[in-house]
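Much of what follows relies on a compact textual record of a protein's fold. The record below shows the convention in full:
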Amino acid sequence: MEMRCYRRLLSILHKEHITNEEVRRRIENAIGPHVDLLTIVRQQKLKWYGHTTRSSGLAKTIMQGTVNGGQRKGRQKKRWEDNIKEWTGLKLRNTLRIAKDREEWKAVVRRSSMRPYLRDRYR
């Protein structure tokens, strides 16, 4: 979706066969360094996870709770916890403990939300 928007901004047709890397380079030349959409979404999701983990409301119960029921057919859906574990590289019980300390969780969000090739640029 993001790449489609970039191509439209630059008036690049699909027929032109320009690579995504070239599109990113042209966008950076046009608007300067920026944070991509996936990074923003990842950061907001991690922040929300930390916020709800520190609270005691219904959102925490829903996010961390499980609902009894039968098994669905097909591929298992990815859960919030799966993304959190994947992005932080931590076990779920460690993320719960770290999220209680706001400053420590902010550091985890900062480290985990950036794409690998952008991490060094924005530190």
Remarks:
- The longest helix spans residues 37-54.
- The CA atoms of residues 85 and 91 lie 6 Å apart.
- The two ends are 27 Å apart (CA to CA).
- The mean pLDDT is 82.
